Amino acid sequence: MFKFDKKQEVFDVGGVKFGGQPGQYPTVLIGTMFYNRHKIVTDEDKGVFDVEAANKLWQSMVDMGQITGNPIVNQIVGETPEAIKNYIDWFIEVDEKTPFLIDSSAGDVRAAAAAYVTEIGVADRAIYNSINASVHADEIEAVRDSDINASIVLAFNATDPSVKGKLEILESGGTGQEKGMIDIAKECGITKPLIDVAATPLGAGSGASIRAVIAVKGHLGLPVGGGYHNMASAWDWMKTYKKQFETREERQAIYMPADIGTNLVPQILGSNFQLFGPIENTDKVFPATAMVDIMLAETAKELGLEIMDENHPINKLV
Fold first, then answer.
1. Which tens digit of pLDDT belongs to each residue from 72-94?
2. Is the domain covering 10-316 a CATH 3.30.465.10 domain?
3. Where are the strands (E) in 44-148, listed by range?
């Protein structure tokens, strides 16, 4: 536990603060809805879903955020322009202030969402996910033409998963890239870049993903986070090991400590936001995250830093 010599930027997106020295601000928690095979979705193409179930899931995250003090963000995933528009319409109706990620496996869907949030006047709450090495020219144009000013900037380098490779893809573009992702983001009008260290599976660079938290914050001073739970979900040994248990409850009991643990390790090193995966895991993720935030805040105070959020877990749970 430490503080960085480099000035640490803090970006406000929809009232949620990203960044700062470890412990100054509570960790931002980002849960995913409408993901592939999400059981509340009945038609992925049209974006038809169980509204009552969605309301309950979102309210559970709102409630836990209020209990622990951890800021919340909704990661909205859609597979078609029609679907993601429907999901966004639902969300801005049930929640008038919370930021949300616009996400999809398809660039044209992300581009359509960028145009849509601009059209309906909620771009100040939208976070584009993401500016990355595979982003196409038409997608870049869509973000540039939108009013979005916050984006996840992905430090994924397909040819070099090391810390050096991650920094290169951010700053210079790495192999086959003319520009770094940060420069591309700036050209798109992104003034609030949120760096995703691109968590990779165990044995395929997971250690570099964790080390990159320190490297990026120490070198660039920008807010850092990631979908660290992917390390556990892609762990082949765990997939095999948990099959020996008969019930889903038993398998989940075996798996969830690893899932949650992947978030806590980078958090200790200063990670500012965690894309923790399915929103159904809210009740398990928040208490553990708040616990580490309290440890970090205690250390921050000892290092002469001020706690910058009155709703920080150290002020609510101790």
1. 999 999 999 999 999 999 999 99
2. no
3. 48-49, 72-77, 100-103, 126-131
